[in-house]
Amino acid sequence: MYLSPVNMLMMLVLMLSSLMAISSSNWFFIWFSMELNMLSFIPILLYNNKIMEIEASIKYLITQSIASSMLLMSSMMLWNNTMNLMLFYYMLCMSLLMKLGSFPCYYWFPSVMASISWINCMVLSTWQKIIPIFIMFSMINLENKMIIMICLLNLLIGGIFGMKSSNMKIIMAYSSISHLGWMLLIKLVNMVSLLYFYFLSYIMMILPLFNMFNKLKINNFNSISMMNKINMTSILMLSLMILSMAGLPPFTGFFLKLIVIYSVLKINITYLILIIIVSILSLYFYLNISYNMLLNSYMNNNDMMKFKFNKVFSILSIFLYTPMIMML
């Protein structure tokens, strides 16, 4: 379905536009590449021509157009010397945060994610973030307090609203917002290599997870309750992927966060401790998903097996998850 000639052409334009943007230093050319990127992604969203996808495409078009207009306006005013440099940075930063689906312009992101396919969710959560993240790290200088505030609020929003949702795509959207907070935290030390490493590792975690959600047709918690016909290996692999996204040791997500913490440790340890505490909120919905998956996989077994599983899982919850949470 996604290998149609139109989709292949749009995906090619999508990739080329991203490469054009990150290889240019001209603001107009960057803006043009971002517009080309946006216009090539919309036909991909509309491929199935469903009402929800059309609605999601309109939301995406409106928010991205507003962000692009802000970026172009700030660039033109700076070129004409009619704008203060700091005001230019704030306006440009706001437009990029809107494109990323970050605080304070995150509202559109979960809404769009909930209405599109898992494959498109994958593209929106990964590839579509490349250009704005690159610009933010290479061309914008922001105060440390502002960066920390954005990171904190991203983690707080991702944790609180992720806990309140039962839609898996919305949960993954808020998970993406939380991980974005960790990526923006790297801006404090301006380690572009660390950003590339974190972002690439995040993509490697997202791709198999979303692919399994797509194959198993998991869209909400009701879908999890219907997973008793799926083999245990698939459920176990899916649970491990989710725990890695949660940042629990000894999985990849934990070491990513540990590297970021170690890198920014000397900047401001007070704010860093606060960020770590707030990030624990995200653990709730990750552990909730994993617990439901593992529990429902045993629902058709005999009572003794259920008892043994619940007993073992309770012991693991006390003696394994508690130190893991403390290590975060």
Automatic annotation (TrEMBL):
It is an enzyme of class 7 (translocase). Pfam families: Proton_antipo_M. Keywords: Electron transport, Membrane, Mitochondrion, Mitochondrion inner membrane, NAD, Respiratory chain, Translocase, Transmembrane, Transmembrane helix, Transport, Ubiquinone. It is a multi-pass membrane protein. The chain crosses the membrane at residues 5-22, 85-109, 121-140, 146-163, 170-189, 195-214, 235-263, 269-289, 309-327. GO terms for biological process: mitochondrial electron transport, NADH to ubiquinone. It comes from the Eukaryota. One of its GO terms (molecular function) is NADH dehydrogenase (ubiquinone) activity. InterPro entries: Complex_I_Subunit_2, NADH_UbQ_OxRdtase_chain2, ND/Mrp_TM. GO terms for cellular component: mitochondrial inner membrane. Its EC number is 7.1.1.2. Its main location: mitochondrion. Residues 24-280 form the NADH:quinone oxidoreductase/Mrp antiporter transmembrane domain. It is found in: Mitochondrion inner membrane. It catalyses: a ubiquinone + NADH + 5 H(+)(in) = a ubiquinol + NAD(+) + 4 H(+)(out). Core subunit of the mitochondrial membrane respiratory chain NADH dehydrogenase (Complex I) which catalyzes electron transfer from NADH through the respiratory chain, using ubiquinone as an electron acceptor. Essential for the catalytic activity and assembly of complex I. Belongs to the complex I subunit 2 family. This is NADH-ubiquinone oxidoreductase chain 2. It comes from Pterobdella arugamensis.
